[in-house]
């Protein structure tokens, strides 16, 4: 069976999809720290929970951002910004 529907629906606010409950600040999204190998040596690196990152958060690498299905690594000097939809915009 194949079904197709054409119609109008209310506008969907994409900011409400796929986001957990953001923390009030970046410290609230911090899950801990771990040693990560960068540039030939171990560096103590903060680990953040992506679902808890607040909108407009700005991160400076090194940092690790974890979520259920993906891990994002910011190398030293990388910059990341969380937009209103929860996207991670990374500047290398």
Account of the protein in words:
The protein is an all-beta fold and 92 residues long. The chain has one domain (14-91). Helix content is 0%, strand content 42%. Strands 1-2-4-5 form a four-stranded mixed beta sheet, with no helix packed on it. A three-stranded antiparallel beta sheet has the order 3-6-7, with no helix packed on it.
Quick tags:
mainly beta, four-stranded mixed beta sheet, single chain, elongated, 92 residues, three-stranded antiparallel beta sheet
Distance separating the two termini: 48 Å
- Number of separate helices: 0
Which value, in Å, is the CA radius of gyration? 17 Å
Query: How does the overall form come out from the CA principal axes?
Result: elongated
Compact description:
The chain has 92 residues and is mainly beta. It is built from no helices and seven strands. The strands form two sheets. The protein has a four-stranded mixed sheet with strand order 1-2-4-5, with no helix packed on it.
Topology:
Blueprint: E1 30-38, E2 41-49, E3 58-60, E4 63-67, E5 70-74, E6 79-82, E7 88-91
Parallel strand pairs: 2-4
Antiparallel strand pairs: 1-2, 3-6, 4-5, 6-7
């Amino acid at each position: 069976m194949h079904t197709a529907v054409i119609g109008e629906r209310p506008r969907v606010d994409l900011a409400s999809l796929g986001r957990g409950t953001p923390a009030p600040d970046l410290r609230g999204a911090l899950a801990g720290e771990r040693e990560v190998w960068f540039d030939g040596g171990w560096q103590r690196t903060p680990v953040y929970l992506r679902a808890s990152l607040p909108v407009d958060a700005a991160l400076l690498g090194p940092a690790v951002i974890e979520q259920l299905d993906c891990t994002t690594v910011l190398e030293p000097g990388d910059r990341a910004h969380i937009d209103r939809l929860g996207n991670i915009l990374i500047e290398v």
